[in-house]
Amino acid sequence: MGSAAEVVKAYFDAWNTQDEAKVRGTLAPDVSFVGALGAADGVEACVKGLVNGMWKLSPRVTVVHRFVDGDDVLTWFEIHPAGGAAVPVANWSHVEHGRITRIRVTFDPRSILQQR
């Protein structure tokens, strides 16, 4: 699929277009996700979490900067919850053999939890 930076860029591009097939193609079958609002193991659980969770919360994201260190990519981005201010997020992704194998996400969820 390409370099780690290209794979992670494709993941975020798929988020912004809500392209389920494209996002699935960036993830390894055994991908592991851990974030502020939940965790998921495996490609199906991760895609389901995006489609039913984050895409509904924030159908688009704004990538502020991407830091690359070999197979590790840190993406600093903003989610845009409806009716709320942009929320800064740090996403660390590890890429092996052209697919994301681990995603760790951190952000302050208080403003999002208050909207629910």
Question: What would you say this structure looks like, in words?
Answer:
- Helices cover 36% and strands 41% of the residues.
- The protein has 116 residues and is an alpha+beta fold.
- It has a single domain, classed as Nuclear Transport Factor 2, Chain: A.
- The protein has a six-stranded mixed beta sheet.
- The chain starts with a helix and ends with a helix.
- The mean pLDDT is 93.
Structural class: alpha+beta
Order of secondary-structure elements: HHEEHEEEEH
Number of helices: 4
Amount of beta strand: 35-45%
Task: Bin the helical content.
Answer: 25-40%
* Count of strand segments: 6
Instruction: Please tell me the CATH architecture by its name.
Output: Roll
Question: For the terminal residues, how far apart are their CA atoms?
Answer: 38 Å
Please describe the topology of this protein.
Elements: H1 4-17, H2 20-26, E1 27-35, E2 38-41, H3 43-57, E3 61-69, E4 72-79, E5 87-96, E6 99-106, H4 110-115
Parallel strand pairs: 1-6
Antiparallel strand pairs: 1-2, 3-4, 4-5, 5-6
Helix pairs in contact: 1-2
Task: Please name the defining characteristics of this protein.
4 helices; 6-stranded mixed β-sheet; alpha+beta; 6 strands; 116 residues; 41% strand; Nuclear Transport Factor 2, Chain: A; globular
Short account of what is shown:
The protein has four helices and six strands; from the N terminus they run H-H-E-E-H-E-E-E-E-H. It has 116 residues and is α+β, with helices and mostly antiparallel strands. Strands 2-1-6-5-4-3 form a six-stranded mixed sheet.
